[in-house]
């Protein structure tokens, strides 16, 4: 819900995905595949079936993911440049940050649910709610506290996700959603007006639309 304060700042509810928006999950695992399988000259991987791309089995790929976890994928891997700064900028201007992620539903799910808030805290990423949900629209309803009044579904004012299926689902639900560029979605035909290269770019866009120009430092 957009709320305008006395200074004319319009604060909003903003949904932010984690993997490949805050955390470089795809690139980290892909780099480890290249290193472990000596495939540095292979073409850029552009889909989630990395094992097929490299001519390996899914179990071999799963072993690589486990290796990444052991090396800090969910603990110490540096966030994507500008991601934390973008979150904090939005919150500085009063926007409400709702982190909604589909992680935590597969292997090590319980551990990942424990590691995630610790990771965000350790890197100083400010947020208001954290929701684990495979369905981002259902996650939206959970994050915003259900349907109030009963006949009005709550909605994020802005959202950012790297998964095209999430982008499409949220868009169909009427959310002003943007697709974060990632190797696995660049081939999908999406209007460039709804693509962003980083969470920082996304945050800057929201600030330009919601904060009076004289309140934005030059």
Q: What does this entry show, briefly?
A:
This protein is α/β, with parallel strands linked by helices and 218 residues long. The chain has helices at residues 25-36, 50-53, 58-70, 83-92, 109-122, 136-143, 164-172, 199-210; strands at residues 3-4, 10-11, 13-16, 96-101, 129-132, 158-161, 177-180, 195-196. It is globular and about 60 Å long.
Written account of the structure:
With 218 residues, the protein is an alpha/beta fold. The chain has two domains: 3-23 and 80-215, Rossmann fold, CATH 3.40.50.1000; 27-70, no CATH class. Helix content is 38%, strand content 13%. The protein contains eight helices and eight strands; from the N terminus they run βββααααβαβαβαββα. The protein has helices at residues 25-36, 50-53, 58-70, 83-92, 109-122, 136-143, 164-172, 199-210, and strands spanning 3-4, 10-11, 13-16, 96-101, 129-132, 158-161, 177-180, 195-196. It has a six-stranded parallel beta sheet with strand order 5-4-3-6-7-8, with helices on both faces. The longest helix is centred in the middle third of the chain and has 14 residues, at 109-122. 32% of the residues are buried.
